[in-house]
Each structure stands twice: as structure tokens, then as C-alpha cells.
Amino acid sequence: MQRFIDRIDLINKYISDGVSFLFVPMTLMAMYEVVRRYLFNSPTTWVWDVNVQCFCALVVLGGAHTLQQGGHVIMDIVVSKFQEKTRLIINLCVYVVFFFVMLITIWQVGMFAWDSLIIFERASTIFSPPVYPIKIVILVGVCLLFLQGVSQFIRNVMALRMLSNERDNS
Amino acid sequence: MSLTIVTLIVVLGFLLLMVLGLPIAFCLISSSVIFTLIFWKVQGLYLIASTIYSVSTKEIFLAIPFFVFLAAVLERSGIAESMYDMFYKWVGHLGGGLAIGAVLICTIVDAISGLGASGIVTIGPIALTEMFRRRYNKHMTLGCIAAGSALGPIIPPSIIMIIVAGFTGLSVGKLFAGGLIPGILCSAGFIIYIVIKCYFNPDMGPAIPRDVKITWEDKIKSLRSVFLPVALILFVMGSIYTGAATPTEGAAAGAFGALFCAAINRKLTLQNLYLAGKSSIKITCMVMWLLIGGSLFSTLLNAIGVQDALSQMLQAIGKGYGSMILLIIMMLTVFVMAMFIDGAAITVLCMPIFFPIIVKAGIDPIWFGVLFTINVCMGYITPPFGMNLFYMKGIVSSDITMEDIYRSIVPYVLVMIAVLVLMIIFPEFVVWLPNKLIQ
Which of residues 88-107 of A touch B (CB under 8 A)? Predict the structure, then answer.
């Protein structure tokens, strides 16, 4: 079990680190476009299309690791006042809601990606890049987010079990 | 079921999830999904996927990762160190001079970065060490840095304003221009406070003794350090104000400029790029998932009529007591919320509800957007959960308690409240520049 959740954490970390390298090429591409448009008056057609897709990938693929790092904004004034055991139990309940919602999200995003895939959908811009790959990336992203949730949940259960073991021993 | 009860259930359900400690972004998504199933129709769920897609590919929001990356590169570019050296040489011999210098550098950093804590992470460590070495009072030292960098989203560029624009359709350029004067007034207010305080209590910020001789040549040479940041500011903001570039392009150009500055200072290493990317992706995802959640939630509120119910309630207040009272109620709501939750989350929660009412009540939307931003920024330094206060705690030694930090910030919060009230009484301060610059 430990190995399973460690692996989830690690995969999400690698993916997040991987997409974080997109920042530099995105900046360079955008700068190239700005220079082309304002200095040479010949804008490219592809830069914003590519950049927007990079942006989307960044957001959906980085979300899971951000969750693991506790990077999402939380209001924990109330919960932090409770005892550790109560806090862990509350957390478990909250994650059950999270799982339910994420499963619906995966289902919906799956259909969204599928609808796009079967018609090989393209963007309605001049460059008109295919958009179904990025919609599949969104699906991968929400699946990873769900898995990260599972990992957090198991960690929580383990902490809870450890806590009750300590109590039995003392 | 009557609309009032539905509204109550939706709001309470969301609050319950939030209080139980689910990240706010997922509270928004979860309550949207659950209440769509209960009060709306299953087909409404289709919105989840399309919202994730449309928000994360919206061009205006593409400015966010660029501004975040810009700030992250700037932190590691070595710009702040040399600027600090310059202010040390120019104003160090004045009472409280180092604190004034810290506020000024924060203001410059704020004018490059759109985040609320860039100042702290950029110059905090150096400024703190130096001020403690010079026996500055700890409250003086802590307050000026935390407050100075909280101006980040008021002084353009600003991620909060981009979010406001994304939710309301206002012009980003106008909002940016509107924030300039209040931002500078806040910064000036901080400096006046430091000068007065140190004049009456010289122990708060002892001047550097005269025997440390700094020649004019040194002073002139040190001026070089502000050249790059100022060029960067003119480059980014100039291109947005003159309409030469969209805010997104301006942000990208700024990020490129920051990389360039880092290269000049020989700080553009792979290690630094990796660290900058790593911290940027965390902040970008945090903000963007909030935006996804917020858009989803506000669509749901609209669909089942909750937004209308809240609007009617507030409008009734507006009709009964005048639009000024309405504005004050909203400002107080934001002020209280900002004590507890992050600025981006407040914007996402409040803007979709407040904005239509503001427009109907005939209040200038740009003015409101700027006031809202000032208020949200104040939240970065209001106890108990001001984000900047925790950033400060993270960089100080362990003998400084959270209470010290809370006490240090009070005068600066008062200055910001004074500026906010001034802006409410004299809207011209806010709306003059945007109307002048952008037709």
C-alpha cells in the first residue's frame, strides 16, 4: 500500500516538474509573436494556439501535485482547532465527497473528450490546430487528480491507524 | 421549494465543505456538482468539462502564468540585492532610512510583479538581516516589508485585476491604470508613517552613523541597479497602456524581460529556472483551479436563480439606503472575508455576485474594481490569516512570534484603510488616469 501511494505521489511530481519546463518555451514563443507583430508587422498564426494549449496542459496536469503539496487554498481555522483524531476523521469524510465529485467529473470530461475525438475536432482559429489531444490531456489531468486524492486518503487512514495503535500501546 | 430556502441550502452547503477543510477550489466544484444534481438537471453536469476547458484556454487568463513566472524569475534574478545596496547608500543615513528603502524597493517590485508576496520573498531576507544588524526596532522592520509587498496587486500589473476583468469583462488596461494612484498613495503613506515614527522615536530606526563614508561616486554608480527594473516596468506597462500590446502579451514580454535581467546578472542557471518553474506551476494551478471552481459555481448560482435572489436582496438595500451604503456593505464583507481567505478566492466568490448589482446601481465599475482590489490586498496583511504575515513568519528567526508580526502590521493596515476611504470619498483619484490614458 505504501509503495502504491508513494508511486502516485512520485508520478504526479514528475509530471508537474515536466510541465513546469513549459514556462520558458511559452515565454519565448509569446515574445517571438510580439516581436513579429510589432516590429515586423507580420504576426504568426500559430503562437497563441500553441500557447493556449500549453497553458491548458500546465493547469490540468499540475493540479494533482499542487494538491499533494498543500498548494490549494484551504480555510482551516475551524478544523485546526480540533484534536488530531477528529481532524483526520473529518478529512476522510471530506475526501469521500471529493471522490464522488471527481468520479462525476471524470465521466463528464471523458464524454467531452470522446465527443471531440470522434470528429477529430479542430479549433476555429486560422491555424486551426486539433483540440482533441488537449481534451484528452484534461481527462488524464482529472484522473491524476483523483488518484492523488486516493493517495491523500490512504495516508490519512494510515495516520489514523497509527494514532489508535499508539493509544492501545500506552 | 422557495428560492430563499434553495439559496440558503446552497450557501450553507458550500460553507460547510469549506469549513471542513476541503481546498476552496474543490469546494466550489463539489458544491456545483452536488447542487446541480439536486436542484437543476443532470444535463447541467456537462458544464464541468466545458468550464475546465474554456477557463484554462481563455486568453486573458493566459496572462496569469506569465506574471507568476515573471515574479518567480525576478526573485532569483539578483535585481533586489543591488537595488537594496543602492537605497542603503542613498537613504541609509536618514532616520528609518532602511525601512523607507525597503518600502521603495517593494513598490518597484510590485510594479513588476502582480502577486502579493513578491516583495517579501525577493528582498525580505536581505532587508531583515541588515535592519536587525543596524538595531532597528523589530516592529518597524517586520511591518514595512510585509505591507510594502502587499501593494503588489494594487500597483499594476495585478493578477487580482486580471481575475476581476475575466469575470466582468472590464478592460484590464483601465483597471491597471486605476490602481496606480491608490498604490502610490499607499506606498507614500507607509513612508510618511515611517518618517514620523522615526522622527519622534529615533530608536525605532537609527540612522547609519556618519563615519561610514559613502562617496558620491559610489552613490552614482549604485544608481545603475535601478536601470534594469525601471526599464522592465516601462517596457511592460508602457506596452499595455499605449495599447501596443494586450495584457497577455505585456505579461509575456515582462517574463522575457525578467529572464533577460537574470541573464545580465549571471543568475540564469538551469537550477534557477527549474526552481522558478516549480514555484510558478504551484501558484498558477492554485489560482486557475480556483477560477475553474468559481466559474462553475457562479454558472450554477445563475442557473438556479440564487444570484438573482442575492442581487434582489442587495438591490433592495441599495434602493432603501442609497448606493453608497451598498458599496460600504460590500467593502465590509470583503474586508472581513479577507481576514480569513486568500485574495484570489474572494475575487472568485464575490465578483460574479457583486458586479451585476454594482452595474445596476449605477456605480462606476472601474472604480469599484479598483476599490475591491485595494480591499483584497489589505487582506494580505490583516490578521489572523493574512498570507504575507505567514510569509514573514517563514523568513524570520524563531524568536519572533506571530504576535510580533500581528502588532507590527497594525499601523500599515490603518494607512491602507485611510487610502481606501479617501478613494471612496474622492473617486477622481481612481478614475482620472484610466479615462485619461485609454479612451
Answer: 90-91, 93-94, 97-98, 101, 104-105
